[in-house]
Amino acid sequence: MNSGDPHLELGESLPRFLCHWLAACFGHFLMVLLPLITDWADVRDATWPAWWSLLLFAAATSLIAAVINANLPVTPREMIKSVALGFALNATGTMLRLS
Amino acid sequence: MPGGVFVPRLQTASALPSRLLHGLPLRRECDRQAGVPSPIPNGLHQSRWSKRIGQSIELVCFLALIAVFVTVIYGFWLRAIWAQGYFLAVALTILGAFVVLIGLAQQAVAARDVATWREMAEWQIRAARARVAGADAEDVVDPDSAAYYEMLIGTLVHHADPADPVAGPR
Q: Measured between CB atoms, which of A26, A36, A37 is closest to B69?
């Protein structure tokens, strides 16, 4: 017999998928924007991709993170893992010079 | 019911406020009087850490999540100062942050409702199991047999029937 809180059980659902997808997008943006915040003076003249291509790239890579994390509950503790995965996926893309 | 076993019927249970169901001391007392066994711990939902530590980790993670949101919106804002098109990105990120926060709240509220109903249903099943065990003390039915589940369903239906005068107190 299961006596647990359904909020904390594993299982894929669309709200979970969407929430983790958005969290992974934020992780992706964090990787893009942190250099801008820390080295504002040097980066401001750098060439930047168009805003829509940045958003589309983030949405596409975050789909991988969302598929992997779609069975995690929507709690701050699990969302942070999605943010970290989105960050890591973008770092991988940057190192492989995909973007 | 012989032995004065108190089992709330479905109609009575549905009228109970969730505050009452979540009041653990009262529920334990009811269970003790009714001879209903406690839920079997299956090890899936138990953490070795105390609840307080879990709550503080959740709080720290929530603050970190907010910090990520604010940093991303601020970074897009810095970029938007130089490239006009990025104001749309700022708007979309603010919208996304709101969606995530609303999603967090909505999932918590929906899960609390589900947990209340599920707990009531599980309580009924445990009570029916206790009744089946009490009714057949001399000839023990194998709990894995079809006959056992037939009796279990019979007991559940019997005590859900409002026209039945012996089902228990209202």
A: A26
